[in-house]
Write a structure and sequence with these properties.
Belongs to the ABC transporter superfamily. Glutathione importer (TC 3.A.1.5.11) family. InterPro entries: AAA+_ATPase, ABC_transp_ATP-bind, ABC_transporter-like_ATP-bd, ABC_transporter-like_CS, Oligopep_ABC_C, P-loop_NTPase. It is found in: Cell inner membrane. The complex is composed of two ATP-binding proteins (GsiA), two transmembrane proteins (GsiC and GsiD) and a solute-binding protein (GsiB). GO terms for molecular function: ATP binding; ATP hydrolysis activity. By secondary structure, this protein is of the alpha/beta class. The chain has two domains: about 1-260, P-loop containing nucleotide triphosphate hydrolases (Rossmann fold); about 280-355 and about 365-530, 3-Layer(aba) Sandwich (Rossmann fold). Helices cover about 35% and strands about 25% of the residues. The protein has 21 helices and 22 strands. The strands form five sheets. It has a six-stranded mixed β-sheet, with helices on both faces. Strands 17-18-19-14-20-21 form a six-stranded mixed β-sheet, sandwiched between helices. It has a four-stranded antiparallel β-sheet with strand order 3-2-5-6, covered by helices on one side. A hairpin with a 2-residue loop joins strand 10 (about 230-235) and strand 11 (about 240-245). Helix 7 packs parallel to helix 8 (about 195-210), helix 15 (about 385-395) packs parallel to helix 17 (about 430-445) and helix 17 (about 430-445) runs parallel beside helix 18 (about 460-480). The termini are close together.
Length: about 550
């Protein structure tokens, strides 16, 4: 007789409770992951996703948290209780049996160590490899994740690699010891769609090769629908819903899950209609920006922006899309003279600003403001919100210090925050709230143009939706123009009247959003659109569960 036994999970979390100070951040969370399975953990910022991941590796203590209840067990046979391990045993566990890929590879890698040296530390600790053996193993790990010229990369530093390559290095390090469990915490959030597609394909392929269990943390439901077998939905530290991916997407049981899905942008939902001959507020002609070069430089100059021309109309949003490193942010900074262009013209409201001296440029800076990707890094942690949002207005002489509090109250209320938060500091706000504060600061000088450089890419879907809705409201009310830079094409479609596609420093295609996305002409545009995750939970990924067959 043949009996089919239900396999034991590789990782089992039971009634996990996590606290930061007196605040309980995770309340009684339970889930299992089996060999070869991908479980996605999804929820808004602050839901407890990352705290859960850090607790599995017992890293939450380093972030000021602690496990106050529950268990984390690793292993199919004779499971190991992670919550009771001593420091020495934890060192063997981390990177050995459980590995983690973090969201931001630049801050996860040591900037003063070469890639080879950093990988060598892991290989020495967990596999006992040193010298030439460690270097060969590191080279093989880089080759496995399809990094070109792996031998040369070993001697490079993190800043010499693109974001996509740095993330591949992190994956190579995580997988170099062939872990039983891989935790991927927002590993593709900062990546463009083509690089994201490559990274997801890479993780899935290595998972099949090694039989790993994967805990994948993300706020991108499109990614989840493509890569996850099962989904756990979290809200305020609690599990709201759990089930197979196809079931969750086709028939969510919890209202919160349905709200998350409704807030998620889907390519093809439609774009704002193009404006009819809006008056131009920004004209860029033949703009070129170079980095490096010169008489004593080791390498020739790099052309980051190459002969770019764009026009932005009053009350219009122009979406700028393209892969990491294509020149989007450099173009934006060159337009604003945060980076000096080498050639071309920038005309703002009828005045050429590319040739102005700094003193003459200052009045024009009030007309064009910028909102950056990371709202926390954009705000002075020692400056109150009242001072932060009114600082540009003070510098430009729009208000006096005496009127500062009144202006702060008006700006905060305009972006949907109560006036009484003006005396708080940036660390006391969520990511979405901090981005609202950055928008309030930009609005303090009554600009005609706002450059939003990946302004919602680090936010969960609900907060991103609120921020883009706020931008649309500001545009309707004051006819503000937006240059909206993003790698998320579905978000760009939602907010942009027109799109410009950038590739290797050049604009390769531009036109009304609907036209470009429905009927792309350039091969690169077609490749970008094809790489966008298809939201919807079709259930394409339905591998057979691992089943152990016992003869009786």
């Amino acid at each position: 007789m043949i009996a089919f036994a239900v396999p034991a999970p590789v990782l089992s979390v039971r009634d996990l409770r996590i606290a930061f100070g007196d605040v309980e951040a995770v309340h009684g969370l339970s889930f299992d992951i089996h060999r070869g399975e991908t479980l996605a953990l999804v929820g808004e910022s602050g839901s407890g996703k990352s705290a859960t991941a850090l607790s599995i590796l017992r890293l939450v203590e380093r972030e000021g948290g602690r496990i106050i209840g529950g268990s984390v067990r690793l292993g199919e046979t004779d499971p190991l209780e992670v919550t009771r391990l001593a420091s020495a045993a934890l060192r063997d566990l981390r990177g050995g049996r459980i590995a983690m890929i973090f969201q931001e590879p630049m801050t996860s890698l040591n900037p003063v160590m070469t890639i080879g040296a950093q990988m060598g530390e892991t290989l020495a600790l967990h596999r006992g490899l040193r010298g030439g053996a460690a270097r060969e193993a590191a080279r093989a790990a880089l080759d496995r994740v399809k990094i070109p010229e792996p031998e040369r990369r070993l001697d490079q530093y993190p800043h010499e690699l693109s974001g996509g390559l740095r993330q591949r290095v992190m994956i190579a390090m995580a997988l170099s010891c062939e872990p039983e469990v891989l935790i991927a915490d927002e590993p593709t959030t900062a990546l463009d769609v083509t690089t994201q597609a490559e990274i997801l394909k890479l993780i899935a392929g290595l998972q099949r090769e090694l039989g790993m269990a994967v805990l994948f943390i993300t706020h991108d439901l499109g990614v989840i629908s493509e890569i996850a077998d099962r989904v756990v939905v979290m809200k305020n530290g609690e599990k709201i819903e759990e089930g197979r991916t196809s079931e969750i997407f086709s028939a969510p049981r919890a209202a919160y899950t349905a709200e998350l899905m409704a807030a998620s942008p889907r390519l093809g939902e439609g774009a704002p209609a193009p404006l009819t001959a809006p008056a131009p507020v920004l004209k860029v002609t033949g703009l070129t920006t170079r980095f490096g070069g010169g008489m004593f430089a080791r390498h020739a100059a790099t052309v980051a922006v190459n002969d770019v021309s764009i026009v932005l109309g009053r009350g219009e949003t122009l979406g700028l899309v393209g892969e990491s490193g294509c020149g989007k942010s450099t173009l934006a900074r060159s337009i604003m003279r945060l980076v000096e262009p080498a050639a071309g013209e920038v005309e703002l409201l009828g005045t050429r600003i590319d040739t102005l001296a700094p003193s003459a440029l200052k009045p024009h800076r009030a007309r064009m403001q910028m909102v950056f990707q990371d709202p926390y890094a954009s705000l002075n942690p020692r400056m109150s919100v009242r001072d932060a949002v009114t600082e540009p207005a003070i510098l430009h002489g729009i208000v006096t210090p005496r009127d500062r509090s009144e202006l702060a109250a008006r700006l905060l209320e305009r972006v949907g925050l109560p006036a009484e938060v003006a005396e708080r500091y940036p660390h006391q706000f969520s990511g979405g709230q901090r981005q609202r504060i950055c928008i309030a600061r930009a609005l303090s000088v009554r600009p005609q143009i706002i450059v939003a450089d990946e302004a919602v890419s680090a936010l969960d879907v609900s907060n991103a939706r609120r921020i883009t809705d706020l931008m649309a409201e500001i545009q309707r009310r004051d006819a503000v123009s937006f240059l909206f830079i993003s790698h998320d094409i579905a978000v760009v479609e939602r907010v942009s009247h027109r799109i410009a596609v950038m590739h290797q420093g050049k604009i390769v295609e531009t036109g009304p959003t609907e036209t470009v996305l429905r009927n792309p002409q350039h091969p690169y545009t077609k490749r970008l659109i094809a790489a966008v995750p298809r939201f919807g939970g079709s259930g394409d990924r339905q591998p057979e569960p691992f089943v152990q067959v016992e003869l009786a």
